[in-house]
What does this fold into?
Amino acid sequence: MEQFQYILILLGCAVTVVALFRRIHLPPILGYLFVGMVVGPGGFAFIPSIQDLTFLAEFGVVFLMFTIGLEFSWARIMTMRKALLGLGGIQVLLCTVVATIVGWYLGLAPKTAFVAAGALALSSTAVVVKQLAEQHELHTIHGRLSIGILLFQDLAAVLFLILIPALASKDQNALFLPIFLALIKGVSICIMLALVGQWLLRPLFHEVAKSHSTELFMMAALMVVLGAAWITHYLQLSMALGAFLAGLMLGETEFRHQIEIDIRPFRDVLLGLFFITIGALLHIDTLPRHWHWVLFILFSLIAFKTVLIMALTRIVGGVALSKAFRTGLILSQGGEFGFVILTVGINNHLIDPVQSQVVVAAVVLSIVVAPLLIRYNKAISNHLFKQVEEIVPEEHKGLPLSEHAAELKDHVIICGFGRVGQILARFLEQENITSIALDLDPMRISSSTLAGEHAFFGDARRPEVLAAAGLARARMIVISFADEPAALETLRHIRALRLDIPVFVRTKNDSNLKTFQEAGATEVVPESLEASLMLASHLLLMLGVPASRILFKIRAIHADRYRVIQGFFKGTDEPTLLEEADAARMSLHAITVTENAYAVGKAIEDISDAENPLAIKVLTRGSTRYPDPDPKMIIQAGDVLVLFATPESLYLLGEKILRGL
It folds into this structure.
């Protein structure tokens, strides 16, 4: 019963604090850490021991690693081998060696210094991935480099967890056997899960999908995640490793996106609990006695890892200085596996609990600072460095983008070479219109290049890449990728370079239609609305409506920028997600004006104010419909008002119409 009370305390505090942090535009991760520090044993001790919740919180990291695996494929891992093995391996090795030497110089025993160094060498996968995903930076140059290094760090954590108990052994000859066994286990589990993914998982999810049961599909996904984590845990390896490999297998299937949607609620809730347990590890009462050592470790950790990773990514990875710095800044904090390493070190009597608290405090504070450093990594980089041309990864240096585009004129640049981009390229080719495509998927670029397509590896958000693609001589640009924040950034860079060129933008729906239009898009084509128009055209044609009349209607809607058909009534199959922007959450809602309603006898403009403008799409009175009614129109009892608003605004507008509140 006590655990149930603890969970209620955590949930109550988390809801209150995270809501407050979101209101003041701070990352929610900071809210979770703050809750842990306040309610944990090191704060007000509302929860005297957090150990009972630690095991449950570990599943947050398990689900996080699974979703990371879904984002990758074996082909993409191979293209990242330099970041994964080269950068990651050198970074962990140098950080561990330098921190061990410094700790030894400051008076720590060699084994104690090694344990502390191992804890400091690793960065926080949970913080980095979550924050980069919220900022839509996972697939940028610095985002991919960060993920590659983090993946190696997660693998290195397994090695540390094997080495530390071996160091505690009196028989030093026993050190090499556990390492060798761990390597054998790691290779074996990779091969086994690869075979399972090929022969079992794909057929399994095909059968599950045939049932058309959402709960069955979700249970199958949970079974795979937890089953893979259990296998690696049973073999005395990291649960996160098994979850990542399972995600990697399912990332090769067509069910990747649906699985990610199903898993996301479990991941986010458990990750929140995980961050709370990290915050609870910090004993605030120990800070006054050791504050100088805590601050020394904190600033040394952030500065050293930033400089080291920046140097490695610049020299070994061959990226621009600004991108190298951003990668170092993103990975400058300590990590969640560091706490696990310290715990194992304490259990094996290799590090004193008081010494470990100093390291824990420094790591926790670095994680507290990390979301802010990651959020403003671009601004800090722009302040310190001039934006220089990005260097294309070595795997794609053989693709001469600027050389190919040098002789082109009046061509079309396609930003994004996915399904939509490829279809557009084929239509242009049939009309003998020259085009050139930019994309960031190395596997897609390699395959399409071999097939003779004019597609090149390049980030369309970079002005230098656009210039290399011949923007100054291009006839038109099409932004076809589905990432709308990236599309908006690309559009703004295009308009900064050229104001006269037509730019067509593809979007999923009409939620950001106005934003793209204000940013300078010549035409914005929402997929959902265009699909509806095409279906309506065929429907009217089959019903005998003349083709000329249908064409006139479609042209009128396009000329009106879809304003007539914007908004729809959502159903149970189209949930409203709170994390979406307000524009994406707006839909149509119908309100019936009752006899005693406040709005009866008043003009529409009289019940509208600046804070809650009354956006009435249609007013229905009896059998008569009034689209976009006149603001001076008097509202009568029995009128049905169709409002276009978010769920929260709808509540306020309803109170205003019915009660005048």
Notes: The first helix runs from residue 2 to 23.
